[in-house]
Design a protein that fits this description.
Bound molecules: threonylcarbamoyladenylate, magnesium ion
Number of strands: 14
Structural class: alpha/beta
Distance between the termini: 27 Å
Radius of gyration: 20 Å
Strand content: 15-25%
Helix content: 25-40%
Length: 343
Amino acid sequence: MKTEILEIDPANPDGRLIERAAAVIRKGGLVAFPTETVYGLGANAFDPVAVRRIYEAKGRPADNPVIVHVASVEGAKRIVAVWSEPAQRLAHRFWPGPLTLVLPKKECVPKEVTAGGPAVAVRIPRNAIALALLVVSERPIAAPSANRSSRISPTRAEHVLRDLGGRIDLILDGGPSQVGIESTVLDLSSDRPRILRPGMISKAEIESVIGPLKDHSPGLTVGPMRSPGQMVRHYAPRTPVEIAAGDGRVRVRELLEHGLQVGYVSFGAVGQALLENEGFLVPVTMPETPGEYGARLYEALHRLDDRHLDRIIVELPPDTPEWLAIRDRLWRASAENNAPGGT
Ligand code: TXA
Ligand code: MG
């Protein structure tokens, strides 16, 4: 299959291009499209065959359900059996935006979407291209991140092309994703709301709208999440990623002495030129605010991964609530080395 790429202006999406993409969705094809978090790989959520094609293209295990994207709260209510008061309040506060709500599903949602489970994950993305596609296709769109299973999520069309080129019908290239890491996933399907995946919308922000979460939703210590089928090793580049204990430069120098080719992702400012003089091959300085860091993280990992290095050394941001989601993704990127991995 040849994958077509359409460049499209996120500030003012061309209706003709959106219509072409919507036609692909309506006839059961796969369209990768930008959202504010990462690029999604979309199919008509009401078409089980099309949804199965998502799993095939990604090589995704069948037990990991996918998020359904909708254009409005009305659209969410069409697939959700119980639209609760907390759901309404959170949607009002955070949608369109990077918060996914897991709620009891209606009969009309195919089992392929929820991996056979009784609840469906839903969100309204904050991206004009995604919203236009949802409106024009007149379908809810099931879309996991547009990467091969267990690889890093794409924040640019070229990342999608590299991973899924030849396996999907169309990529809408709407430039870089602004948030840069995946949405917060909040399970509201039982009377004990809990965060299944941390994201840029924090536990504190959610609690400010619906009151304290009773559970031990990921606090400061990151670890395996409880979303069904979610793998420990996820969001990982091909190059082994190692979290530095303390100053990453010490570890990089050690590996350089052993003749390894090493990428270095520092936290905060370091003298780029000085490091290069020392033989640091690809030093990347990451921003010191979570928002900017998140926006650049996957792009940095993709770029380092392309260099076919022996190792990527990463310095962790501080162990504070606002860095939780980013620490979670870094931990996952490195899980192959540091923790008993999934597949
Ligand atoms: O930001 C995002 O969420 C992006 C964009 C494209 O919307 N999507 C994304 O999808 O990251 P994916 O499939 O890579 O991650 C979806 C997460 C997984 O951890 C999955 O287990 C969880 O949401 N999930 C999906 N449906 C669920 C359900 N019915 N119950 C519980 N967890 C669910
Ligand atoms: Mg994903």
